UniProtKB/TrEMBL annotation, chain A:
InterPro entries: Papain-like_cys_pep_sf, TAT_signal, Transglutaminase-like. GO terms for biological process: proteolysis. Residues 1-34 form the signal peptide. It comes from Enterovirga rhinocerotis. It comes from the Bacteria. Residues 212-287 form the Transglutaminase-like domain. This is Transglutaminase-like putative cysteine protease.
From TrEMBL, chain B:
Keywords: Redox-active center, Signal. Residues 1-18 form the signal peptide. The keyword Signal applies. The keyword Transmembrane does not apply. This is Peroxiredoxin. One of its GO terms (molecular function) is disulfide oxidoreductase activity. It comes from Enterovirga rhinocerotis. Residues 6-167 form the Thioredoxin domain.
């Protein structure tokens, strides 16, 4: 069945944690915001780029289900989810949507006798760089009450009370505006967390466990969820944006782009904070830590010019070489035997009611390919 | 020996270990008996209550959790050495798909049961705040010791604490069942 779809996420780290943001910040070099860092990495809104992404799931047996996320984000300034199509061999499939966040996915089913179940989903999106002028409020509509409530709420792994609240209170102490609070939280995450290459996938995002253990290592789903939780605890609406790197960085940052058309393991989630007068503002402290660890020659100092440029840019802007799937947390996959997923960024599947390992695309198996296409 | 005396707060000698030497097995803050009944990897269902009369380690972990992995090897050695003397390990996998666990334990087999807490209901009920975490139940099912973080289960004071629990002949706190 083929169906067209149309529609309109050391200094000893425990010691640093105990010191809190302000004191910790004083121990580490920080970029001088009053003196702009070199424009090594400086996304600015420009031309829209169109990408085609093909996700192919191949399962070894029938009595199976699969869920493939479909781009579900439409933001006028930086991202358009265009048409998607899908085809399924030996089974049936339909488009489904999460009732809370509107995160869409193609849900396929195969009966027990199905041989070589295959699902292929093709999506087109348009993206461009985004950047907010944080020195000049742009006005605009206030955040709706429903969205404000949703993006201030706790999720299963992002509590907004307890140690998250006490940590947030410590970080934003003395900060008057939401902009200053959000920037303080961003700086705190940049300065106190680290990218852990051993973390599987993008991490899990259990931020209370991170703060309780004092281990602030992880990847984007950990570090940016930490920003989101701390911001929500400070009363600032914030959300993870789960997605996929689809093209190299035009600024030459190898760590901040896809290395080839095969993007099966290129998932990346970012974050946004709602600042009145500016709207949703791009935030990505996890990518700052990725530049620190991975940008050649690797293990860069926090005051390395490449890091400083990324750090300056990634509070307020990001590059349009990335696809946004959705903002969803705690997603119940329709028809699934297994539990909710923390977020919907990877293809998911079950065979005979047993959930496959979405972080093992070779065993799963699934592939994702992305290419830039002309409009 | 009272429960406070069981707390192992003396500094352990530093030694080469994959585990965090700062972590300590301490007296359990909450000694309310709790239930644990979960499906097991490979099939069947396991309950902590089935092991009354043994000292039970309820260990919460995830394979994505970096310090969890070497601790599983430490627990495996503990199980092989103290299992015959009355120590039972119930390792609870928190919110991980069964297929991932099958693959992981095919490459790193262990000699104790792996229980599946797929929806985090058990880890919430046990107030687990970080992985790995372990709660040690005495022979009457009462939480007596706990550690948040990874632990080297070969350390002498850890083994001594488990020996003390094995040696108890009467419950030290109310609320547990006699073995």
């Amino acid at each position: 069945m083929t169906k067209d779809i149309h529609h309109s996420h050391p200094l000893h780290r425990r010691h640093l944690l105990a010191l809190g943001g302000g004191a910790a910040a004083a121990l580490l070099a920080r970029p001088a915001f009053a003196q702009p860092a070199p424009a090594l990495f400086a996304p600015k809104p420009g031309a829209w780029r169109t990408y085609e992404v093909v996700t192919r799931v191949e399962l070894p047996a029938g009595d199976a289900q699969a869920w493939v996320p479909v781009p579900s984000v439409n933001e006028a300034g930086w991202f358009r989810s265009s048409d998607s199509t899908f085809s399924v061999q030996g089974g049936e499939a339909k488009l489904v949507a999460d009732p809370v966040y509107g995160a869409r996915a193609v849900h396929a089913r195969w009966a027990s006798g199905a041989e070589k179940p295959v699902l292929e989903v093709t999506s087109r999106v348009q993206a461009r760089d985004r950047a907010a002028d944080l020195g000049k409020p742009e006005g605009g509509s206030p955040l709706g009450e429903a969205d404000r409530k949703l993006y201030l709420s706790a999720t299963d792994l992002i509590p907004t009370g307890g140690i998250v609240k006490t940590t947030s209170d410590r970080i934003v102490a003395g900060k008057a505006s939401d902009l200053d609070k959000a920037r303080a939280i961003y700086d705190w995450v940049v300065e106190n967390s680290f990218r852990n290459a051993a973390t599987r996938g993008c991490g899990i995002g259990d931020i209370a466990a991170m703060l309780t253990s004092g281990n602030l290592g992880g990847k984007c789903a950990d570090l940016n969820a930490l920003f989101v939780g701390l911001a929500r605890a400070a009363g600032i609406p914030a959300r993870d944006v789960y997605g996929l790197r689809v093209a190299p960085s035009q600024f030459g940052y190898k760590s901040l782009g896809a290395g080839s058309e095969v993007v099966t393991k290129a998932q990346h989630c970012r974050a946004e904070a709602w600042l009145d007068g500016h709207g949703w503002v791009a935030v990505d402290p996890a990518d700052v830590r990725k530049v620190v660890l991975e940008e050649p020659p690797g293990k860069l100092a926090i005051d390395d010019p490449k890091v400083a440029a990324a750090r300056t840019a990634l509070f307020g802007s990001w590059e349009g070489n990335w696809l946004a799937y959705n903002f969803a947390h705690d997603v119940a996959l329709p028809g699934a035997a297994g539990p909710k997923v923390e977020f919907l960024m990877y293809p998911q599947a079950e065979i005979k009611g047993a959930r496959l390992d979405c972080l093992d695309p070779d065993g799963f198996k699934y592939t994702i390919r992305a290419r830039e296409v002309s409009v | 020996m009272g429960i406070v005396a069981l707390a192992l707060i003396a500094a352990a000698p530093m030694r080469a270990s994959a585990t965090d030497p700062e972590n300590r097995l301490e007296a359990a803050a909450d000694i309310t008996p709790r239930t644990l009944a979960l499906g097991a990897l490979g099939g069947g269902r396991r309950e902590a209550a089935d092991h009354r009369g043994r000292v039970v380690l309820v260990h919460f972990f995830a394979t994505w959790c970096e310090p969890c992995r070497p601790e599983l090897a430490s627990l495996d050695r503990l199980n092989r050495e103290m299992g015959p003397r009355g120590v039972e390990i119930l390792a609870v996998s928190v919110a991980e798909p069964e297929m991932r666990l099958r693959r992981f334990f095919a490459e790193q087999p262990v000699s104790f049961a792996i229980l599946l807490d797929q929806d985090r209901a058990a880890s919430r009920a046990w107030a687990i705040e970080a992985l790995p975490s372990t709660v040690v139940l005495d022979r009457w099912g009462v939480p007596r010791l706990a550690v948040r973080g990874d632990l080297d289960w070969q350390r002498a004071e850890v083994r001594a604490a488990l020996d003390d629990l094995l040696d108890e002949t009467e419950p030290r706190r109310t609320g547990g069942d006699r073995p």
